[in-house]
Each structure stands twice: as structure tokens, then as C-alpha cells.
Amino acid sequence: MNIEKFIKENASIVDVRTSQEFKGGHVSGSINIPLQEIQNRVHEFKSLKTPVILCCASGNRSGIASQFLNNQGIECVNAGSWLDVNYYQSLSV
Questions:
Q1: CA angle, 6 as apex, 49 and 44 as ends, to 5°?
Q2: Which one, out of 59, 61, 67, 81, has a CA that is 20 to 30 A from the CA of 19?
Q3: Preceding peptide of 34 cis, ω within 30°
């Protein structure tokens, strides 16, 4: 899994933290779909460019989201912390 490569290819970045956490800081260009809402918003993932890069605070929630979405047939990767994704994105500018 090469997150930096996916970012360079303009993959979609989805932050699965709460809306409050997202407002406190997030990856530029990412969208926020909180983990607890994913089951009801699967249709939104189907319209995103894949693989979808998932992130959260530590990688735990994005790991849960990744497992669920992969089971729904949506290509995605758990990138761990949004801060790591932010770093990788800064390298690709």
C-alpha cells in the first residue's frame, strides 16, 4: 500500500472522525463521513475516486471503516492518522 502514490493519483480522502474532530483540523481536500454514519452513506463512497483513502485520529476507526467498505465492494485503504495523510500530501505538492 503506497498512500503517497494514491494521493498523487488524486484518490479520494475520507476522514471518518466526528464532525467536531474534523473541524479542528483535517487534510486539505478531504471529506468527512463519520464512522457512525458510514453504513447509511455507502452510496456516497460508490461515487468517489478509488481507492478511497480512509483516515482518522490513530487508524482504529479508519480500519473499521475499511473492513466494512471492502466488504461492500468499495476499494479503500486504511491510511491511519490524518496527520500521516497530511504529511504524505505535503510531499506530493
A1: 25
A2: 67
A3: no
Alpha carbons 23 and 42: distance in angstroms, whole number: 22
Residue matched to cell numbers 468517489:
48
Question: How far apart, in whole angstroms, are the C-alpha atoms of residue 35 and residue 44?
Answer: 13
The span from the CA of 90 to the CA of 75, in Å, is 24
* Whole-number Å distance between alpha carbons of 60 and 89: 20
Closest alpha carbon to 78 in 90, 88, 60 = 60
Domains of the chain and any CATH numbers: 3-91 (3.40.250.10)
Query: pLDDT truncated to tens, each residue of the chain (93 aa)?
Result: 689 999 999 999 999 999 999 999 999 999 999 999 999 999 999 999 999 999 999 999 999 999 999 999 999 999 999 999 999 999 876
